[in-house]
Amino acid sequence: MTSNDTRTTVTTVLLRSDGPVDDEILAYARAKVDAVVARPGLPAVAGEVRLVRATAHHADRPWSATADLRVGGRQMVVLAEAATGHELVDQLQDRLRRQTDKAVHAWDTGHRTAAPPWRGGARSA
Q1: pTM to 2 decimals?
Q2: Cα dist. 70→1, 38, 59, 82, 120 in Å?
Q3: E strand or H helix at 15, and its extent?
Q4: Is the dihedral of CA 118, 115, 99, 78 positive or negative?
């Protein structure tokens, strides 16, 4: 059975930056994050994505990102580190997509198998 139900979900994801992050990387990050959280079938998404560029020139991976999102009723924290801004955003997008897929497909609605009798579950007669 197919459905033509196209509900609009509320997505409120703030994009913040610390350090010398240029506008090109911010625009690229906004496009990639929006591509993940605005997919059809996702529940309401809210939270914050923070991009940080270290000012130390000797750091191996000066770029880091932290995404703290709530997808429906599930809290997600995604971390990423990379050498360049584009690598960081691509890595963050992959990890966000993986975690949102888990959140959508999680069977966390209380559907659990019954405990066996030796663990205090209901006994069958």
Answers
A1: 0.74
A2: 29, 13, 31, 24, 34
A3: strand 11-18
A4: negative
- Separation CA 28–CA 35 (nearest Å): 11
Q: Which of 73, 4, 5 is nearest to 43 (CA)?
A: 73
- Containing 100, the helix (H) or strand (E) segment is helix 85-105
* H or E segment and range at residue 47: strand 45-53
Average pLDDT for the chain: 82
| pLDDT tens readout for residues 14-71 | 999 998 999 999 999 999 999 999 888 788 889 999 999 988 777 788 999 999 999 8
Rounded distance between C-alpha atoms, residue 50 and residue 100, angstroms: 18
Residue with tokens 């966000």: 96
Residue 65: both structure tokens together? 């990102």
Instruction: List Cα–Cα distances, 16 to 21, 36, 53, 67, 81, in angstroms.
Output: 10, 17, 12, 10, 16
Which residues are bridge partners to 77 per DSSP? 68
Judged against a pLDDT cut of 70, whether residue 4 lies above it is answered with no
**Triad 9, 12, 18: Cα angle to 5°:** 155
